[in-house]
Amino acid sequence: MKTIKPFCLALLSLFIITACNVEELQSGQSLLETDNLTLKSSIKKSLPFKASFTVWRAEAPGSQTCDAGSFSETMVMKGNGEMTHLGELQGLFMRFCTAPTPEVFFPVNYSFIETGKFVAANGDELHCVIESGQIWPYTGNNPKYQLHFNDEILFIGGTGRFKGASGWAKTNAYVHPGTTDNEGEDPFYTDFFIEEGELIIVPGSASEK
User: Fold this and answer.
1) Which of 35, 127, 128, 191 is the least crowded, having the fewest Cβ atoms under 10 Å away?
2) Angstrom distance (rounded) from CA 121 to CA 14
3) CA–CA separation, 136 vs 133, rounded Å?
4) Which range among 14-23, 66-75, 112-121, 180-189 has the greatest average pLDDT?
5) Hey, how many other C-beta atoms are within 10 angstroms of the C-beta on 61?
């Protein structure tokens, strides 16, 4: 009996020590996983950004009142095209205010009054804004264009794999005024040929094609 009692005490002590070690190991693994997630979310990846798309009027100019200082009329645009990391666009949306400066007709100042959206083929959205831009006369050789602007688009998050995205791009856009009612064979439209830009995403949140 005296031999059995010390044996039982030793066995109980071993069990307690083993249980503590397992608990410490599990706690250590949990902390490691948390640290890995924190590290992953803190690392961002920079990707080159290019795009080619066209927008048309979605509403008649001036359909809403602007509250942006001297800006006098709204413009709402929709369109389609392609972008790196988004593929063929399912849709896009831009709403901004525009008006000429009081001194001369050019430049025409404009500013987004609502977050713009680029919708990827799978429905993920990349959000953007142009804080301040200017439209100038086109001086190239293409007869279909009359105006040009090359302002900075800022990426400000999105949905899906673009959640938390940031970055910038230069518009490099060319305007064909067309008819004022945006109907018929010669509608108003703007072509964008973006060759300069950067999309910053959390690893794994955007494709790298």
Assistant:
1) 35
2) 59
3) 10
4) 112-121
5) 15
